[in-house]
Design brief:
The structure holds 3 protein chains of 3 kinds. Chain B is an all-alpha fold. Chain B has 12 helices and 1 strand; from the N terminus they run H-H-E-H-H-H-H-H-H-H-H-H-H. Chain B has one domain. Chain B is globular. Among the domains of chain C are: 142 residues, no CATH class; 486 residues, no CATH class. Helices cover 70% and strands 2% of the residues of chain C. Chain C has 39 helices and 6 strands. Chain C is elongated, with a radius of gyration of 32 Å. The chains are: A mainly alpha, B mainly alpha, C mainly alpha. Chains in contact: A-C, B-C.
Chain lengths: 127, 304, 1054
């Protein structure tokens, strides 16, 4: 269905997979955070890939003519990729950064309490 | 029949029952003594006892309940007697049976026992409540076969009215419930043994071990009232059994013969059996007599 | 009207300005913070008023683009209500959190505001990607707020929560992206239309991703591990804020996206996961010893319940309002309880013994909020659950009712396990007080107050307005509960006035219309019983401070139950009665544990009844009067469930184990009411229901017997079993407890006969049992009050010291045992005639036996207390207080009246049964003679006979023989005996030892063993289930993946 963008879709999925493997198998808190970051990247890539159409260009208009007179603009929509996923990804990236930062600050605080980064030390609350 | 006449006849009836009851008591003591190889007291000994108790010069009691307990007892005995028709068809001897049916009689029986128990217990001797606890325990257990028998008869006659139950047995001795529903009769007659508290069910009074059972808390006229209650109650019971199982009576002699035979049933058994412990007698009554009672009820259910 | 978008804009703006404003001082920034929230509250409330008044929902278009291209927001009534609730919670939370150092920084204020903004956005937006953004704002806000805590455990929990949340939002975002790919739009309303045209195979998986993302955020089982940790470890105030803002917003989001799932097979999966969460979380919670963790499980359960309802909400207004009520209830109760948990500070359940000993306001709030979250009336959750059940019952989804009720019962188990500690008397170790500033507890008081206010309002709407006597009694009771200054005796006097007023009012209401229907009879019983207790209360203290307030609430609930014709009104009264009586039982010295058992069995009874009522509701019937329209299998199911429920509540054999403890440990003044009135309410239910539903016989493979016949045997077995057990008790109140249960067994049996005579017998016994058992319990209450003991072995000989109490007990046992000439005989007579008339011969014999056994305990009771020898320490004891004796006097007069003239009651009863069966059960042959088809008796004649004999014999004793002399008990010797030194012996222990020996084979404690087995199995299940939550962050993330895989697998298979 998405002729030409299988590579990007595939890479995105692979990244998500790798990220999850990292989150699930690494005992180090920092590595888990990296895992989450990779998942984020994978998702973003995937979303962009979904909107990608081979042979088309980014929906960015930067010709001086348009900047001078917006009404004169004539864009051939069939030459552009879907702009919405790209806009979404921009937001998602910002959010991802925020989440990563917050996670890292958690890691710092957790390290301060137990002097370890091993996730197994942080399983006291259970049942 | 005008009420005044009725009352008059009732008084006569009560005194008759009292005399009969005391006499039966005397006969029994004599019979028992002979069986055991003793000479025994004269047959008229109960009359002597009653007279003696009435003529004592001192009387003591331990409080209100112990004072009125004998009244309860005597009223209970006389009351039950007055609710049972003695001779059917003779209004004077049908007593006040129109005021209450068989259920009334069954529950009136408890009236005397209750008062007696309260009075004896107030006296404060620990042996009294022991005797009462045994008595109540035994009473409750023979109540089951008796109740089943009563239910069977009532269902058979379609009425709880004693008069109706008698009338349903007319037309020859084979119509008596003793033969019409032998299972119910068996249950009831086994229960009768418990009711009369002769051996093997005489641990309640425990004449040998605890010579201080409930009646020993009473003396002089109190004791005489207890005797009155006991005698009339005994007569009431056998009259009731006669009405329920032996087709009632149409004349006074018939009633005398039938009741005497019924009473002797418990003497015959009592004379030859040793005594049960309380829990043994309870188990006994909840065993075969109860099964007989259930079978009697089932007989009625399936034959109707 | 203010544009709702300002709610988001103002929040965001102030949030970012706050650090600057804070330069002017914390007071200023805090004020601005609160003002912003207040602004949000007022705006949303005004919108709510306008919208419910019929105004159009606001559509807000952003950036000049009209949907579906641009992002649009919607502000309808639901949105307005949720936003108002979020702001309200945030205000209370801010007041509370200001007292907690870690959360009193300006940073915390900013984040708190952001959470409200995030929630407001989530609620209002109609755009899926926008939803994701607000989701993340809320998420990051909550993680950050949690991170302010410095405790290790809080951080651990926060991290796990974040790890799971990140995974969840990843799925959600992926899902949204794919949806966009499939439909080409992000607008929710637009997408719904377009999605139906999409037939690509992957659409199911995509929807699954969205769904699981939301499910993880809403802490559904098994993805709720970290959320429960948060409850356990984080500051409760933060959790309270999250409940009111993020959680509600997420729930609403799920509600919005449900439109995408319409007609989709995932609906079943959503319902299943929701219900599983509800049942499993409630099950696992019963083994929690930590209060906050328990609240976490409870939150999961509540979310599960709401999620479960989502798929069924289409155009169903009933389910919609059910959802709204449940959500409101959960927010008020859970937030309030979390604050309370924070204020109290107790982590373990056992820390809560006698919590808040010096603050009635906090105790009432605590109790009210627990009742609210347990789904009991009058609080909104009850009405929500009812409507949810009705909605289900009327659809093909009715089987879901079963797990819903099971889960609700489990919910009662742990919440009342908590309450059990709270209602225990305060000790030295009791914690919690109002020492803190008012602003810290303001939220609790506000939310509890709101819950109560909503509750009163909702109840009033079902019970015919605020002016209804039942409601007024409840309100007076509530005031008395809170008003602590009034002395107990004054409160009792007030109760006399209140109950008396209701009696007058009821008489007034009944004027002109026939009072003598079943309802009227029970109303008389209940109010007379209540009056007796209140009068007695003037003489002696009862329970604790709130006794009379609770008592009036209880009486009010019974009046409401009896006068309400709708099934809902009946059940609301039933549950109100259950919990108010629970508190009263628990007020006994050792009443907390028996109280819990009482509550749990009553709760189970309630749910059985609810099941039965739902069978009727499913057939479109919502009032008692229409019950007769039921037929076939539905009628049978309804009849059986209702009868089973009532049978549990009367403590039938097999489920009787709650009764002895509840009766004997409840306050002495309450026991008569418990026995005389409360045990009659299920009888009323039976009468009201059984008379109307004509249940067909069981199917042939079940023997084809009539269900009523089964009930009759249950009643008979109860009557016998309990009577037998009563014989062996060593405790006066326990003995009467068993006796009481047994007596109600007779009533059940008689009613089950379903004949005019049977009903006459049963209803006669209802009144008679009220009279004699109240009399006995009151007399015993006086004795216990004076002697300080309930043990037979410690009493004896009190007849000389307490003669009037003795007469009471004497009259009581004669009336109980059925000995003529008192009223009890009529009861026995009616019962036996009815049973033989019905053809139940074996049962008749069995019951006669049971009645004979009753003599044993009757004698035991009166002998052990009043006869025998007086204890040395009781020689100076006084008679019971006068008001107690007045109550007893009233009861004795009533008993004597019924004994001499049974027609006083029998005649109205004949009218009553004629109205039901078309013919009377009795004839009145003369003024005093009563006849049935089988027998007859003449009460007046028997009374005269007894009196005449008595007088004659008394005269004989007084005047015929020698004058008798009273002698002391120990002043007696026998011939030839050496008088031993006087020694006190009271034969009162193991009184019926031989009897016990004889009955040993059937006296085994199989019933107790069975129920403790049930308890053990349930607890073992809960313990095993709890192990799912390993505490490991990675395991929890793995669960999300597995959850998706399993659901996807099921989706493919299905």
């Amino acid at each position: 269905m998405m002729a030409g963008n299988e590579l990007y879709v595939g890479t995105g999925i692979l990244l998500i997979f790798i990220g999850f493997v990292g989150v699930l198998t690494r005992r180090n808190l920092l590595k888990m955070v990296i895992g989450f970051s990779i998942i984020d990247t994978g998702v973003n890539l995937l979303i962009v890939a979904l909107g990608y159409l081979p042979g088309r260009t980014a929906p960015i208009v930067n010709s001086p003519k348009y900047l001078a007179d917006a009404s004169s603009l004539t864009v051939d929509a069939s030459k552009l990729v879907d702009p919405v996923p790209q806009a979404l990804v921009l937001t998602a990236i910002v959010i991802g950064v925020g989440v990563t930062a917050l996670m890292l600050s958690y890691v710092i605080r957790l390290y301060a309490t137990e002097k370890t980064l091993d996730v197994r030390q942080f399983g006291r609350l259970k049942w | 029949m005008p009420l005044a006449t009725k009352i008059l006849w009732s008084i006569v009836g009560v005194f008759g029952a009292l005399a009969y009851g005391l006499a039966i008591g005397g006969v029994i003591r004599k019979v028992m003594a002979r069986i055991q190889g003793r000479i025994g007291p004269p047959v008229w000994q109960p009359y002597i006892d009653l007279g003696k108790n009435l003529s004592l010069r001192t009387a003591t009691h331990h409080g209100v309940m112990s004072f009125i307990a004998p009244i309860f007892r005597a009223a209970g005995g006389i009351g039950v007697f007055l609710l049972v028709p003695v001779v059917i068809g003779v209004p004077a001897l049908e007593n006040f049976s129109f005021s209450g049916d068989l259920l009334m009689v069954m529950y009136f029986i408890f009236f005397g026992s209750l008062g007696m128990a309260l009075g004896a217990a107030e006296a404060g001797h620990p042996h009294s409540p022991i005797g009462i606890s045994r008595g109540l325990a035994q009473m409750s257990s023979y109540e089951l076969p008796f109740a089943l028998a009563v239910v069977a008869l009532a269902a058979q006659a379609g009425s709880f009215s004693i008069r109706e139950i008698i009338l349903a047995q007319q037309g020859g001795w084979l119509h008596w419930n003793l033969f019409a529903n032998p299972l119910a009769a068996a249950a009831a007659f086994l229960a009768f043994l418990g009711m009369n508290m002769y051996a093997p069910f005489n641990i309640v009074g425990a004449p040998q071990e605890i010579p201080v059972g409930p009646p020993t808390e009473f003396n002089s006229q109190f004791l005489s009232l207890l005797m009155v209650g006991r005698a009339t109650f005994a007569v009431a019971k056998i009259v009731l059994y006669m009405d329920l199982f032996l087709g009632g009576a149409h004349s006074l002699p018939e009633a005398l013969v039938k009741t005497f035979l019924i009473y002797f049933w418990s003497i015959f058994v009592g004379a030859v059996f040793p005594r049960f412990r309380t829990e043994q007698s309870i188990r006994f009554f909840l065993g075969w007599p109860t099964l007989a009672g259930i079978a009697g009820v089932l007989l009625v259910i399936f034959s109707h | 009207m203010v544009n709702p978008i300002l709610l988001i804009a103002a929040g965001l703006g102030v949030a970012f300005l706050l650090p600057v404003i804070d330069r002017a001082g914390r007071v200023v920034s805090r004020a601005v913070h609160l003002l912003t929230l207040l602004f949000g509250l007022i705006v949303s409330l005004r919108w709510l008023a306008a919208l419910t008044g019929g105004a159009q929902a606001a559509q807000i278009i952003t950036g000049g683009w009209i949907p579906p291209i641009g992002i649009n927001l919607r502000f309808g009534p639901l949105e307005a209500a949720l936003v108002a609730l979020a702001n309200l919670t945030a205000i209370a939370a801010a007041l509370y959190l200001a007292h907690h150092e870690e959360q009193s920084t300006v940073k915390s204020l900013v984040i708190q505001l952001l959470l409200v903004v995030g929630a407001t956005g989530l609620i209002m937006t109609r755009d899926l990607f926008n939803t994701f953004v607000f989701l993340e704002i809320s998420g990051i806000g909550s993680y950050a707020l949690l991170a302010f805590g410095r405790e290790r455990d809080g951080l651990e929990a926060g991290f796990k929560y974040m790890a799971l949340g990140s995974a969840a939002s990843t799925f959600f975002l992926l899902g949204v992206a794919f949806l966009y790919k499939l439909t080409g739009t992000l607008n929710l309303d637009d997408m719904v239309g377009k999605l139906s045209g999409v037939t690509v195979a992957g659409v199911g998986t995509v929807l699954l991703l969205v769904m699981v993302g939301l499910m993880a955020e809403l802490k559904l089982f098994p993805l709720n591990g970290p959320a429960i940790d948060i409850y356990d470890a984080a500051e409760p105030g933060v959790n309270a804020l999250l409940v009111g803002t993020t959680l509600n917003a997420l729930m609403f989001t799920f509600f919005k996206v449900m439109a995408l799932y319409r007609g989709n097979s995932w609906l079943l999966a959503i319902a299943t996961v929701g219900m599983t969460t509800f049942v499993v979380s409630n099950l696992l919670a019963i083994r929690q010893k930590k209060v906050r963790r328990m609240l976490g499980y409870s939150s999961s359960a509540q979310m599960g319940l709401m999620i479960f309802l989502l798929p069924f909400i289409r155009t169903d207004v009933v389910l919609m309002s059910a959802m709204a009520l449940l959500l409101l209830n959960h927010t008020l109760a859970k937030a309030g309880l979390l604050w309370l948990a924070g204020i109290h500070g107790g982590r373990e359940l056992d820390d809560w013994r006698g919590a808040f000993p010096d603050s009635i306001a906090m105790r009432v709030s605590l109790a009210a909020l627990i009742l609210a979250i347990a789904g009991l009336p009058p609080f909104p959750g009850f009405w929500g659950k009812w409507q949810a059940l009705v909605g289900l019952a009327r659809s093909t989804a009715w089987p879901w009712i079963i797990p819903l009720l099971v889960g609700s019962l489990l919910e009662l188990v742990y919440y009342f396990g908590w309450l059990r500690r709270i209602v225990e008397p305060a000790g030295a170790e009791s914690r919690g007080s109002l020492r803190t500033a008012f602003s810290e507890v303001a939220g609790v008081l506000l939310f509890a107050g709101l819950a109560i206010a909503f509750g009163v309002r909702l109840t009033a709407s079902v019970w015919g307005g605020l002016g209804n006597p039942a409601i007024l009694l409840g309100i007076i009771g509530l005031v008395l509960v809170v008003a602590q200054g009034i002395s107990q005796k004054a409160q009792a006097a007030l109760s006399v006035l209140a109950v008396g007023w209701v009696i007058l009012r009821v008489v007034q209401l009944a004027h002109g219309c026939p009072l003598w229907d079943v309802r009227g009879l029970f109303l008389v019983v209940a109010l007379f019983g209540a009056l007796i207790i209140a009068i007695a209360g003037i003489g002696m203290p009862a329970g604790r401070g709130s006794f009379w307030g609770l008592f009036l609430i209880l009486v009010g609930s019974i009046v409401g139950l009896l006068t309400s014709d709708s099934l809902l009104g009946f059940f609301a009264g039933w549950e109100l009665m259950t919990w108010s009586s629970y508190f009263l039982v628990s007020q006994g010295r050792e009443g907390a544990k028996p109280g819990l058992l009482y509550m749990l069995f009553s709760g189970a009874a309630g749910f059985l009844i609810l099941g039965g009522l739902m069978a009727a509701e499913g057939a479109g019937i919502d009032s008692m009067a229409q019950l007769g329209q039921l037929s076939g299998g539905t009628a049978l199911a309804a009849w059986c469930l209702l009868a089973a429920g009532f049978a549990v509540k009367v403590a039938s054999w097999g489920v009787h184990i709650w009764a002895p403890g509840a009766y004997s440990e409840s306050p002495d003044l309450f026991t008569p009411f418990l026995s005389g009135v409360i045990s009659k309410v299920p009888v009323f239910g039976l009468a009201a229901v059984a008379a109307r539903i004509s249940a067909p016989a069981f199917a042939a493979f079940l023997g084809g017997i009539e269900p009523a016949h089964v009930l009759a045997w249950v009643g008979g077995l109860t009557a016998f079993g309990m009577t037998l057990l009563a014989v062996f008790q060593e405790d006066a109140k326990r003995l009467l407890a068993y006796s009481s249960v047994g007596q109600v067994g007779y009533i059940v049996l008689a009613l089950a006969a379903m004949t005019p005579l049977g009903w006459t017998a049963g209803l006669w016994h209802v009144v008679n049992h009220l009279l004699f058992k109240s009399l006995l319990f009151l007399a015993v209450a006086g004795v216990v009050y004076r002697t300080g003991t309930r043990r037979f072995a410690d009493m004896g000989g009190l007849i000389t010291r307490m003669p009037i109490s003795f007469v009471s007990v004497l009259i009581g046992i004669i009336a109980l045992s059925g000995v003529p000439p008192l009223s009890g005989f009529a009861g026995k007579w009616l019962l036996y005639e009815a049973l033989v008339d019905r053809g139940w011969l074996l049962l008749t014999g069995f019951m006669m036996f049971a009645s004979a056994v009753a003599f044993l305990y009757c004698f035991r009771l009166i002998h052990s207390i009043f006869l025998g020898q007086l204890k040395r320490e009781h020689r100076e004891i006084r008679e019971a207080p006068a008001p107690l004796l007045v109550s007893q006097g009233l009861l004795m007069v009533a008993i004597l009246a019924l004994s001499v003239r049974p027609r006083l009651l029998l005649e109205p009863l004949q009218r009553l049964v004629t109205g039901i069966f078309g013919q009377p059960g009795l004839q009145f042959a003369s003024a005093t003679k009563i006849t049935s088809s089988l027998g007859y008796f003449n009460a007046a004649a028997i009374m005269t006979l007894v009196a005449a004999l008595f007088i004659v014999l008394l005269f004989f004793l007084l005047f015929a023989g020698p004058k008798s002399r009273k002698v002391g008990q120990l002043d007696i010797v026998y011939a030839a005996e050496v008088p031993p030194p006087p020694e006190e012996i009271h034969y009162a222990w193991a009184f019926y030892m031989p009897y016990e020996r004889a009955f040993k084979p059937i006296l085994g404690s199989t019933v107790t063993a069975f129920w403790s087995g049930v308890k053990d199995v349930t607890e073992a299940l809960a313990d095993a289930g709890r192990r799912v939550y390993t505490g490991d962050a990675q395991t929890y993330v793995l669960y999300t993946l597995l959850f998706i895989l399993v659901l996807a697998g099921l989706g493919l298979a299905g």
